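User: hey, got a sec? need Pol polyprotein folded
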Amino acid sequence: MGLTNFHRLFIKDYSRVAEPLFRILRNNEFRWGEEEEQSFENLKKALTETSVLGIPSTSDPFILDTYASDVSHGAELIQLQAGAE
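Assistant: Yep! Here you go:
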């Protein structure tokens, strides 16, 4: 959920869309059903839309944002466009 939460400002109705997945994290019982699957698919779609992704400009600088812990690691290439990430 970390990556989706990082981009929540760009995902319309994020809290409503992600609620079924956050519910799994709050409960002791893990149950993956149709509602959770739909939430997951909606978040994947939202993260690949143009409001989140942009065409990079080779003349502007990039920011390499990295993350590492004992259990995972990741990286994201960010560029300011129109004054925003």
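Quick note: Residues 2-78 form one domain. Let me know if you need anything else on Pol polyprotein.
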